[in-house]
């Protein structure tokens, strides 16, 4: 027993000795970004990795006064909340319909959805953009929400794998008690799949909040820019104000870091629950 404990202790020390340098390397970009928000332009370009001689928070004040940060955050929050809610709802409903009734049509339709899942977004960009132009949804936050709703396929793909592990005896019992399809879905299935819904919602939230490509294509009004677009527009054509650029980057990153730390246990619980069920 003593030999086993000694071996485990040695293995723990070796793991720590390996992980600490790796963690330091991974943390270096975050250190670089954060430290240079507290420097002047000259200090940033002259010694980017050095600590600031005296921390200067004037860049934060300047960015808040010159950039519509509050409006960009509001636009990003609006698009993120409604897009994630729509994707999770559509994905859960599709997974429920295709899993609860495994007919030949549903199986073929599921394969068609898988085919759409692997199609790159860039390959459908032009035709989708033309459709949105005709519908008057370009340069619109609601149109951007509809574009993101295509991510429902990813939600369906993840949720249906988890839903296949549910105890269908409970669903059959609810049917025998007189519950219709909608009642079974809202009162039985949704509470049972809550862990995977939370996991999918977290992944989609981080994707939409940090996405640059889609807003850059579909939005042209500066008043409707997301926070990531504001970071991009802070880069000049011939010169970059690095402290301002990095300060905006920190402002865009902090909400997602806090969000991820707050909900990481939901991610693990959803993934582990799906792994051990059945």
TrEMBL record:
Domain of life: Bacteria
Chief location category: membrane
GO biological process, one term: transmembrane transport
Membrane topology, from the record: Multi-pass membrane protein
Residues passing through the membrane, by range: 12-34, 77-100, 112-132, 144-163, 184-209, 242-263
Gene3D superfamilies to which the protein is assigned, alphabetical: MetI-like
UniProt-listed CDD domains: TM_PBP2
Keyword annotations: Cell membrane, Membrane, Transmembrane, Transmembrane helix, Transport
InterPro entries assigned to the protein according to its UniProt record, in alphabetical order: MetI-like, MetI-like_sf
Gene Ontology cellular-component terms listed: plasma membrane
Compartmental location: Cell membrane
ABC transmembrane type-1 domain segment(s): 73-263
Annotated PANTHER family: ABC TRANSPORTER PERMEASE PROTEIN MG189-RELATED-RELATED (PTHR43744), SN-GLYCEROL-3-PHOSPHATE TRANSPORT SYSTEM PERMEASE PROTEIN UGPE (PTHR43744:SF8)
Protein family: Belongs to the binding-protein-dependent transport system permease family.
Name listed for the protein in its UniProt record: Carbohydrate ABC transporter permease
Organism: Streptomyces guryensis
């Amino acid at each position: 027993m003593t030999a086993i404990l000694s071996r485990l202790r040695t293995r723990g020390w070796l793991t720590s000795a390996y992980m600490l340098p790796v963690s330091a390397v991974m943390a270096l970009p975050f250190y670089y970004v954060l430290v240079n928000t507290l420097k002047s332009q000259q200090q940033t370009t002259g010694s980017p990795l050095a600590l600031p001689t005296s921390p200067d928070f004037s860049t934060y004040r300047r960015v808040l006064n010159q950039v519509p940060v509050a409006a960009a955050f509001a636009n990003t929050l609006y698009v993120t909340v409604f897009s994630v809610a729509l994707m999770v709802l559509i994905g859960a409903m599709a997974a429920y319909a295709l899993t609860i009734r495994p007919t030949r049509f549903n199986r073929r339709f599921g394969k068609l959805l898988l085919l759409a899942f692997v199609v790159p977004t860039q390959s459908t960009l032009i035709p989708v953009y033309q459709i949105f132009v005709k519908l008057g949804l370009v340069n619109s936050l609601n149109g951007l929400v509809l574009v993101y709703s295509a991510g429902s396929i990813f939600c369906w793909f993840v949720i249906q794998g988890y839903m296949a592990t549910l105890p269908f005896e409970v669903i059959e019992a609810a049917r025998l008690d007189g519950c219709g399809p909608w009642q079974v879905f809202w009162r039985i299935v949704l509470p049972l799949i809550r862990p995977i819904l939370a996991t999918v919602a977290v992944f989609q939230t981080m994707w939409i909040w940090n996405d640059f490509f889609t807003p850059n294509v579909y939005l042209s009004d500066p008043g409707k820019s997301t926070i990531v677009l504001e970071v991009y527009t802070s880069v000049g054509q011939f010169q970059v104000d690095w402290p301002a650029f990095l300060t905006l980057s920190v402002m865009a990153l902090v909400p997602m870091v806090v969000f991820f730390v707050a909900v990481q246990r939901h991610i693990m619980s959803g993934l582990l629950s799906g792994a051990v069920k059945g």
